[in-house]
Amino acid sequence: MIYDACSNIQNFGDGRQKDLTTYSKKGRLMESTVLHLAVRDKDLVGIQTILKTQGNLVNVPNNFGDTPLHIAALEADFEVILTLLQGGACIRKENNRGEIALELLENTKENSKATQLLLKFK
Q: Could you tell me which residue, 24 or 95, shows the higher pLDDT?
């Protein structure tokens, strides 16, 4: 998959495309970056590529204030969380509801390994 920071269209390289515009459950545009989308898709290769080429996106929030690390914490995905932390993700950044990624991860109660990782970076 190819993520383009200037487009909401994902090109698969074989002529297929997907509209990446994301909406909340209430139908509001989420204004996610390509890194948010790669995190949501759990695309480790895409995440690593984006961090190398557009590392400044690592702490950029969507319109809900969620950074890519917030999204990864909601999914309780250890590998994605580790990759983001290694890429410079800020563990203390709050979203619009005043939550940090660790609080979101603790709410999932699915992955104590990921919780321990975030506590190490705290």
A: 95
